[in-house]
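Example with several molecule types.
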Amino acid sequence: MDPTLFTQLLISGILLGGIYALASIGLTLIFGVMKIVNFAHGEFFMVAMYLTYWVVHYFHIDPYLATLILVPVVFLIGIVTYYLFIRPTLSSSVLAQIFITVGLSTIIQNVVLLFWSADFRSISLGYATDSLVLGPFPALHIEEAMVSPARLIAFGLAILLSLAFYLFLKLSYTGKIIRATSQDRSAALLMGINTDRIYRLTFAIGIVLVGLAGGLVLPVYSVHPFVGFDFVLIMFVVVVLGGMGSVVGAMVSGLIIGVVEVFSSYWIGQENKQVIYFLVFIAILVVRPSGLFGLKEEEELEHIETID
Amino acid sequence: MKPLIDRPGSRPWLKVVPWIVVLALCVLPLIIRNDFYLDALILIFLWGAYAGAWNILAGYAGMMSLGHSAFFGIGAYTSTLLLLRFGLSPWIGMLAGGLFASTIGLILGVICFRLRSHYFALATLAFGEVGYICAVNFRSLTGGSEGLALPIRPDALLFSFAGKLPYVYIGLFLFLAVIAISYAIEHSRLGYYLTAFRENENAARALGVRTGRVRLIAMVLSSFISAVMGTFYAQYVVFIDPSSVMRIQISVQVALFAIVGGIGTTLGPAIGAMIFVPIAMLLRAEMGTSLPGLHMIIYGVILVLVLLYMPQGIGPKLKEKIPFLRSP
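Resulting structure tokens for the full complex:
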């Protein structure tokens, strides 16, 4: 393969992967702590995109600033969702746990469709519209590679936010409590941790993280009521590859999936690329359900999931 | 709670009730002369049977599939393509589609043999999406997103009729057949094995239940019936495209019908279809297409409310509330 093309694809893949990483951290965090798969995760991504879009549209402020301003709003949405839908089903059957978020996702998608129609909406950055040119690097036989500034900014901020969250999880006391609850809920409870509070906080943080990812990609992708579904499928792949519940796993495999996506769309075409990562997805689920960074032994994995 | 032993003679007339209902269902289409209501009836039968197929896997075996649209789509596309390409009657295509779908179901079942609950749901979700992408992208075969139109030339041998009445009776037959199959499963050794597997796999295994095998049987049955319903859909609507037979919304909808009606029960999926199909039809008749997605909002809200307040579903709740319906 031509080194220039290779570099170009690799850069595009990594830039895309950064966004996937940030968006997936919330999903894996929620699974790790609460043992539920949030099938409505993509819808929060989509709602955050819309909110950012409307703020930019009406107040003419910078989309990145708008994304940050909206954090408390998205956090609140997370809290309300937790109380209305998640908390009542935490001790229900697996059926209820799966379909409560499936139902929520259906409701959000169609409410958005009803109010804001199926139109694709997009914004463009007023600044930095020209592609940046990297290189050439004659020593590596690489000619110029083009980078879209909007993608570069989204990637930079996404990585920054992911690392900041990782440090929060590792270094802060609250982060420690979240990790403790994730590892062993009963033990955490016995140590006097208010797990209900931690669940609420975790869920809201997870929603904020995916919301941030949604806001950051608005200058790159158009928003429509079903954009969340396209993204959430990728997030599932990322989370499963990284190991469900592993934050580091989601960050690493986000980048991997970004690169895989760009290369497979180059080789087999834009339309068929999804088939590749779904096959990857099923393959991982089958061969190693605990993923690359899975914390749990496979044996244990099989046994958590007995139906009530 | 169902009594373990049927006490014959306690209320013998109750045995007659199901037959009266069946008879009423047979006569009903003859009384209704209105196409709108006949259409509603056909869709109720279609969705009731399809939800019943989902219920065999999810309700009895406890494996929540989010990819059942793929089997439905396989059925619809197989029979339609065999008809369009080779002039093969959809009656045979229906069987071919069923066999093809159950082979795929078997393979999927073998591949996913270790996956439970959330993981199984995720894998089937991906599987359903692969089906959709294939239907959209293999343009030369499936016609892509433009879909395939079926010829309209009434011929009973080609599963094509001028009026709605024949479709009503075919639908009714399939609907009753699925209910009968569900009933048979529930009251057979297989049903007990499936329930044992669902409730506690290790205990079932320890008691000698070949859990792997019974799970695959449920998978095969469920995918076969789903594909048959796909063919029925294609023959009735005479147009299929990826978004009408392969989309994730279909998988969600079929699950929703069964869950709200009463998952893991013989009649639950049928009750679900009776509740939901009229809602969608009335909304469409009242509002046309001015409010897209409104019926899905209502579906979603009902699903969430049922999961929160009566997770066993409406059917079992009715049974509990109305003493007449309670098992003797």
